[in-house]
Design a protein that fits this description.
Elements: E1 7-8, H1 21-29, E2 32-36, E3 42-46, H2 49-57, E4 61-62, H3 63-66, H4 91-99, H5 105-109, H6 112-129, E5 133-134, H7 135-140, H8 142-152, H9 159-169, H10 177-200, H11 207-216, H12 223-236, H13 239-253, H14 256-264, H15 269-279, E6 290-292, E7 296-298, E8 301-303, E9 308-311, H16 313-316, H17 351-368, E10 373-374, E11 395-397
Parallel strand pairs: 1-2, 3-9
Antiparallel strand pairs: 2-3, 4-6, 5-11, 6-9, 7-8, 10-11
Helix pairs in contact: 6-8, 6-17, 9-10, 10-12, 13-15, 13-17, 14-17, 15-17
EC number: 1.14.13.-
Keywords: Heme, Iron, Metal-binding, Monooxygenase, Oxidoreductase
InterPro entries: Cyt_P450, Cyt_P450_B, Cyt_P450_CS, Cyt_P450_sf
Length: 398
């Protein structure tokens, strides 16, 4: 089959957090377009809001099929089929049920004191140190790491080890497949050893303990699934939130009047957080790949069974037919049906937790540092070369 019209993907943006012009052009002229991934495989890139919603909710577009070794993929290594992120219902539903309560609004609210105290302590240290300070090192990374460690029952003291492994696993071209495979093995071994330690000396009611109990009670959870689930929850529990918080902070720093307005009117923080989520370009690929299990017509294109489909949530969140002035960052935006947390079976388990962390962090930051401003020119800032892009540092002064 001739795929000579496939566009090289991912695209390169013109600035630090700006979207490449190809996204808007595709939404206008080729909403379902053939692209070629860095692996050499091809797939369909879906850029419009309604089409993205369709892919996210239609069971004919399969995450499990995308995890098969022979499936088209964006990265050198296939996903582990035992991961909840690589499952379809009913297997996905089986694992989802084991942790759904822990991520529900009622249970997440119990973490509010931890989130508030962790944020306050970080900002206390920042104020005591005095300007300049690196917001990524002080707040954006430590906060979600500390909270997911508390929720899962993972020692915070081990953060340098598992954050390093996660960075290697999520890298784009900066590590070899062998290094990525080694990092996967290292973090899996770490979680397996932690699980065994918890079995020997049960303590507390953390989420890993809950999963261990489910495994022991015969809840059809294999030992491999238990370990992989722990790895997934640990990495997903901090990485995207850290990136979104840092990128959102930069958007506010670009708009000092908006930052000052939030300091005066903290009731506006909730809307600002939703806009930070909508506007984020942290995900380089815009979404997570699926594979069609049968022929499907989508956006005027016939997607054949076995072909890869990438629903680009990042692009859907900039769809001019859904969001007024879609390329403008508007912290007061009222109508904001963004898809940052996905939709359907794979709607983000941690959405409530992420919203809590982002809201508390922004509330405290603008209240305590209303005059916050960048300490270096923006051209000095850099991004990590990873699937989820994060600012390597965000120096600020006040």
């Amino acid at each position: 089959m001739d795929h000579s019209d496939a566009l090289p993907f991912p695209f390169t943006g013109p600035g630090l957090l700006e979207m490449a012009p190809e996204w808007a052009e595709l939404r206008r002229s080729r909403p379902v377009a053939r692209v070629r991934f860095v692996t050499g495989d091809t797939g369909w890139l879906v850029t419009r809001y309604e089409d993205v919603r369709t892919v996210l909710t239609d069971p004919r577009f399969s995450r499990a099929a995308a995890a098969r070794p022979d499936a088209p993929r964006m990265r050198p290594l296939a996903a582990d089929g035992a991961s909840i992120l690589a499952m379809d219902p009913p297997e996905h539903t089986r694992l989802h049920k084991l942790v759904a309560r822990a991520f529900g609004k009622k249970h997440i609210e119990r973490l509010r004191p931890c989130v508030e105290q962790t944020t306050a302590s970080a900002l206390d240290a920042m104020a005591k140190q005095g300007p300049p300070a690196d917001l990524v090192a002080v707040l954006c990374m430590p906060l979600p790491v500390a909270v997911i460690c508390q929720l899962l029952g993972v020692p915070y003291a081990d953060r340098e080890r598992f954050c390093h492994w996660a960075d290697v696993m999520l890298s784009l071209g900066s590590h070899t497949p062998e290094q990525v495979r080694g990092a996967r093995a290292d973090i899996a071994r770490y979680l397996a050893e932690l699980i065994e330690a918890k079995r020997r000396e049960p303590a507390g009611e953390d989420l890993l303990a809950t999963l261990i109990d489910a495994r022991e009670a015969g809840e059809s959870l294999s030992e491999h699934e238990l370990v992989v689930f722990g790895v997934t929850l640990l990495i997903a529990g901090y990485h995207t939130t850290s990136s979104t918080l840092a990128n959102g902070a930069l958007q506010l720093l670009r708009r000092p009047e908006a930052l000052a307005r939030l300091a005066r009117h903290p009731e506006g923080v909730a809307a600002a957080v939703e806009e930070i989520l909508r506007f984020s370009t942290a995900g380089v690929n815009g979404g997570t790949i699926r594979v069609a299990t049968e022929d499907v017509e989508l956006g005027g294109v016939l997607v054949r069974a076995g072909e890869a489909v990438l629903p680009a949530i990042t692009s859907a969140n900039r769809d001019e037919d859904v969001f007024a002035d879609a390329d403008a960052f508007d912290p007061g935006r009222e109508d904001n049906p963004h898809l940052a947390f996905g939709l359907g079976a794979h709607y983000c388990l941690g959405s409530q937790l992420a919203r809590l962390e982002l809201t508390v962090a922004v509330e405290q930051l603008v209240r305590r540092f209303p005059g916050l401003r960048p300490a270096v020119p923006e051209e000095d800032l850099t991004l990590t070369p990873a699937v989820i892009r994060n600012l390597t540092a965000l120096p600020v002064t006040w």
